[in-house]
Amino acid sequence: MRLAACLGLAMDLIEPCGFVLDDRRLRRSGMDYLRGLDLTRHASWDRFLATRAVENHGAGRLVLLTTQGSMRHLDFRFQANDTLLLGRESAGVPPVIHNHADARIRVPMQPEARSLNVALATALVLGEALRQTQGFPAG
Fold it and tell me: Mean pLDDT across the stretch 119-126?
C-alpha cells in the first residue's frame, strides 16, 4: 500500500488475502499513506475480472510475478497499462490466476534461494516497469 501511494499508482486488493484485513488493521498498516492511495477491494478473483471488464474496457495485460516465471523481469517489455499480479508470500497465486496471466515473470535470484518477500519483489519489478514506461512521478 505504501509503495502504491508513494508512486501514485492504483492498487487492487483481491480477497481472500493471505492476512486479515479489517478496517482497523487497514488504517493501522496504511498509516498516513491511505489518504493518497487509490485502493479498490474485490471480494474474489471473479469480481476483479468482472470489474476490470466493465471499467477498463479491454485493459492491458495481466503480468504475474512468480518464482515459476519463464522470463526475467529485466527482459520483459512492460507497457504503461500492464497490471502486476502478486500472490501470497507463502503460496503464491492459485492456478486459475496463472491461467489468466498474459505473462509470467520472475526476479532473478541465486539458485538456492526460495523467494523474496512480496514487498521487495514488487518494488524491484515495479521500478523496472516504471523506468521502461517513464511512469515515475515527476517529483
Answer: 94
